[in-house]
Each structure stands twice: as C-alpha cells, then as structure tokens.
Design a protein that fits this description.
This protein is of the alpha+beta class. About 25% of the residues lie in helices and about 30% in strands. It has one domain: Threonyl-tRNA Synthetase, Chain A, domain 2, CATH 3.30.980.10. The strands form two sheets. A four-stranded antiparallel beta sheet has the order 1-2-7-6. A three-stranded antiparallel beta sheet has the order 3-4-5. It is globular and about 40 Å long.
Length: about 160
C-alpha cells in the first residue's frame, strides 16, 4: 500500500469537543443554511464557535440547535476517516481552508452519515464517547452578522 503524506497538524484538540464541533457545524448548516463556523476556539472545558448569520436565532431555534446536536451525539455514530486526493475533493468540499502548501492527499472525517468534511484534527471513534452538549451562552453582533456560541460537554 502506498504511504500517505499529510500536512503536519499544529494543534492537539480534545477529541470529544472537536468531534462535537463537526456535529454542530452540520446542524448549523441544516438549520440555518449557513456555512461551517468562521472562527473556532475548541478547548477541553468550554469552547466557542462563530457563525455568519443574517439575523440572531430565536430562543426556539437555539433550543432546536442544542436538542438536535444531542440527538445526533446520542445516536452513537461511528467517526471514520477516508483519504482522497485534492482533485477528488473538489466540488465535494469547501477547499478554501486548505493551506496553500496542503498535501495532495487530504483526510475526510465522517460522523456517521450526518457530516463529512476535510479535517486533520483528532476525533473520538464513536459519538458515544462525547457526553452531552450544553449551550452555555450565545450573542449576536448585527454589525458583523456574527453569532457566537459558547458550549461545554457534560457527563463525559
């Protein structure tokens, strides 16, 4: 088998929290039609994600986000990887975040059939390892149209 060459990764994410980021991103896309987070700060104790949204979500939408993320996590989905070429990734994934010197081989991380994206970070092998997603706070800046959420994981 040919040996794969991937770019070096300069972060050591906390796998349960980083995998939760994937689930949140797909849920935001599904609920709001936005892209994946525009800014992320993922830590073990609590994390934050920023999304570009035209309006602040309603309290009902915020609750729906939390409920949906937990429903997905509690499905005990496998988290798997696939290696493809950048040419194969074109049109299937947003290539904007790849560094200019990205390797020809890229890694796709899949959370069951719920989400897939290019990622080189660390993940759990199954969403049963995550715990429960708890939204701590959120705020919206109408000038920048950025909605920031802060969250943690409980019952890990």
């Amino acid at each position: 088998m040919e040996e794969l060459t991937l770019n070096q990764h300069n972060k050591a994410e906390y796998p349960p929290m980083h995998t939760t980021e994937h689930v949140i991103n797909r849920t935001m896309i599904n609920l709001f039609g936005c892209g994946r987070s525009v800014e992320a700060h993922i830590e073990r104790k609590k994390s934050k994600l920023d999304y570009k949204l035209a309006a602040c979500p309603t309290p009902e939408q915020v609750q729906q986000l939390e409920d949906t993320v937990n429903e997905v996590i509690h499905q005990n989905l496998p988290v798997t990887t696939e290696y493809i070429t950048q040419a194969e990734a074109q049109g299937r994934f947003d290539m904007e975040r790849l560094p200019d010197d990205a390797s020809e081989t890229v890694r796709v991380v899949k959370v069951g059939d719920y989400d897939e994206c290019l990622c080189i970070g660390q993940h759990v092998s199954n969403t049963s390892e995550i715990g429960t997603f708890k939204l701590l706070s959120h705020d919206y800046n109408p000038d920048t149209q950025i909605w920031r959420i802060r969250f943690k994981l409980v019952n890990e």
